[in-house]
Structure formats: structure tokens, C-alpha cells
């Protein structure tokens, strides 16, 4: 009974479709970042060195890239609402699931042999995420319009004050 309840909750939280990511793939992960009351999207592109629990709610990938000579790794929960999308850029030919040996390599020896793949696997449509992105765009447009209106109002007030000062100056002269 309790197992069925846990499974129902997990299924409710899962995304409907997730890209089939494997170890060795070069992926571009787009993630939502909250800074104060603003939200923005940040992308991180690198090689997947680990895939964990593929069919679970807690499925996770670890992505590694080298930035300015320093290796950077990030782990992403695929079903997290903060992960906007995952796009496979290149598929690598590997024979193991955990590519920890890439941490010790640099330059050409860190490259993986590419493999042909069907790029249509990236065509995963998540209506909920798209609706939320559209909502964010509309909200940003509304804020920009409100800010422009406020600025125009301030400009009108400044012009009115300037006209008053010029009139008072002309009366005194």
C-alpha cells in the first residue's frame, strides 16, 4: 500500500519526456537560475561522465567541461523543474557507464570518438515547461512596459517643472 502511494507521488513529479542521455554524450543543459526576484537561463555544455538511476525520479547526470584549464563538473537531476532542457550535441563511443578516467586526462587524450546518432531524439516537447517559459516572457514584457510608462511619467513631470521655472524666470526678468 505505502509503496503504491510513493510511486504515485513520484510519477506526479516526473517530467513526461526526458532526452535519452548516455555516458560519453556531449550535452547542452539549460538551467533556471534565480537571482533575487529575477530568473534567467544558464547553459552548461560538456561531456556526460555519469548517468545514475535512469528510470527513477532521482535520475541524475554528471557533466564535465574544462574551463580555462580547470575541470568543472556539475550534477543535474533530470526531472528537476530547474532543468529547462537537455540537448545532445554529440554522441561519444564508450564502453562503460562511469568515465572517471577523463578526470586524469587533458587535451587530445580526453577526447572521445564520435558516433552517428539520430538528432530527432532532442525533439522532446514539454508543454508545462514551454508554458512557464512563455509566462516568464510575458511577465518580463509587462514589467518592461510598466517601467517605460513610469519613465515617461517622470519625464513629463520634469518637463512641467522646467516649464514652471522658465515661466517664473521670464516673469522676473
Uncertain regions spanning at least 5 consecutive residues: none
Q: What's the CATH architecture name of the largest domain?
A: Roll
Order of helices and strands: HEEEEEEH
Query: What radius of gyration results from the CA coordinates?
Result: 26 Å
- Kindly state the number of beta strands: 6
In the residues, how many domains can be counted?
Answer: 2
Q: Concise description?
A:
This protein is an alpha+beta fold and 173 residues long.
Describe the secondary-structure layout:
Blueprint: H1 2-13, E1 26-35, E2 38-52, E3 60-67, E4 70-77, E5 83-92, E6 114-115, H2 127-172
Antiparallel strand pairs: 1-2, 1-5, 2-3, 3-4, 5-6
Can you walk me through this structure?
The protein is α+β, with helices and mostly antiparallel strands and 173 residues long. The protein has 2 domains: 2-124, SH3 type barrels (Roll), CATH 2.30.30.790; 126-173. Helices cover 34% and strands 31% of the residues. It has 2 helices and 6 strands; from the N terminus they run H-E-E-E-E-E-E-H. The chain has helices at 2-13, 127-172, and strands at 26-35, 38-52, 60-67, 70-77, 83-92, 114-115. A 6-stranded antiparallel β-sheet has the order 4-3-2-1-5-6, with no helix packed on it. The mean pLDDT is 87.
